[in-house]
C-alpha cells in the first residue's frame, strides 16, 4: 500500500488518535484528537487557539501520532504511528473539515464559535503501519510530504556477516520471520515484531539494530 492508503485508514477506520507534543517545561503531553482530513501525502486536525495544545504546537511543531482500530481483546487490529511536523494553515480547509465531519457542528454550532479554530497539516514525516490481523503480522513504513522511501529511518534489527548459521535467532523469533537457509540469516522486516530476541541470544554478535 501507499502513503495515501495508510492515511485513509487513519482518517476513516481509526479517526481518533493520540497526538503527543512537548510542553513549555519539556515534559510530554498527549491528548486524543480526531483526524479530520487526509490527502495523498498529509493529514489534518484542528484545535482551538485558547488550548494548551495550540500553544505547544506553535512553540514546537513536531508531533507523534498513534492510533489503533479493531475489536477489543481481539487480534483483528491495525495500528498507525506517525512522527512529523504539524504546520498551522489557519482557516484553510476549515469549511471542508465541517463538511466531512458533520458531528463537529454540534460542538461548534455557529460561524462565530468557529473563530477559535485553526487547522494544522502534518505534511512532513515518517509513519509505520502494523497489522496484527495478518498471519504472520505485517508491518510497513511510509513517508509524508516530499520525502521518498529512501529517506526513511529504518527500525528493527538486521543480521550481519558475523552470522555462523547456528539458528538460535530463528528458534526465539515469535513470528518465524528469520530465514536461516542462507548465511547470513535474513530477517523479513515486514513480519518482524522488533522484540529483540534475536539480538539477545546471538552468541556471535551478528545481530544489530538497523
Low confidence ranges: none
Helix tally equals 6
Tell me the distance between the termini: 22 Å
As a percent range, the share of strand residues is 35-45%
Instruction: Kindly report the oligomeric state of this protein.
Output: single chain
Largest sheet composition = 8 strands, antiparallel
Q: What's the number of extended β-strand segments?
A: 12
Structural class: alpha+beta
Helix content: 10-25%
N-to-C series of helices and strands: HEEEEHEEHHEEEHEEHE
Radius of gyration: 21 Å
Globular, elongated, flat, extended or rod-shaped: what is the shape? elongated
User: pLDDT average, as an integer?
Assistant: 92
Structural notes for this entry:
With 210 residues, the chain is an alpha+beta fold. Helices cover 20% and strands 36% of the residues. It contains 6 helices and 12 strands. A hairpin with a 5-residue loop joins strand 1 and strand 2. It starts with a helix and ends with a strand. The model has no long low-confidence stretch (mean pLDDT 92).
Amino acid at each position: 500500500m501507499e502513503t495515501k492508503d495508510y492515511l485513509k485508514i487513519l482518517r476513516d477506520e481509526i479517526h481518533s488518535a493520540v497526538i503527543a507534543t512537548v510542553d513549555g517545561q519539556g515534559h510530554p503531553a498527549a491528548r486524543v484528537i480526531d483526524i479530520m482530513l487526509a490527502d495523498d501525502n498529509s493529514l489534518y486536525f484542528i484545535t482551538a487557539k485558547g488550548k494548551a495544545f495550540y500553544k505547544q504546537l506553535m512553540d514546537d511543531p513536531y508531533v507523534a501520532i498513534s492510533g489503533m482500530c479493531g475489536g477489543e481483546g481481539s487480534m483483528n487490529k491495525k495500528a498507525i504511528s506517525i512522527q512529523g511536523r504539524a504546520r498551522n494553515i489557519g482557516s484553510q480547509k476549515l469549511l471542508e473539515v465541517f463538511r466531512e465531519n458533520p458531528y463537529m457542528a454540534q460542538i461548534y454550532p455557529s460561524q462565530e464559535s468557529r473563530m477559535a479554530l485553526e487547522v494544522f497539516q502534518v505534511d512532513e514525516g515518517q509513519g509505520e503501519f502494523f497489522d496484527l490481523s495478518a498471519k504472520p503480522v505485517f508491518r510497513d513504513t511510509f513517508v509524508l510530504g516530499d520525502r521518498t522511501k529512501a529517506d526513511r529511518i529504518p527500525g528493527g534489527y538486521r543480521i550481519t556477516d558475523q552470522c555462523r548459521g547456528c539458528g538460535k535467532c530463528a528458534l526465539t523469533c515469535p513470528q518465524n520471520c528469520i530465514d536461516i537457509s542462507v548465511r547470513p540469516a535474513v530477517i523479513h522486516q515486514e513480519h518482524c515484531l522488533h522484540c529483540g530476541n534475536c539480538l539477545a541470544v546471538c552468541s556471535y554478535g551478528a545481530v544489530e539494530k538497523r
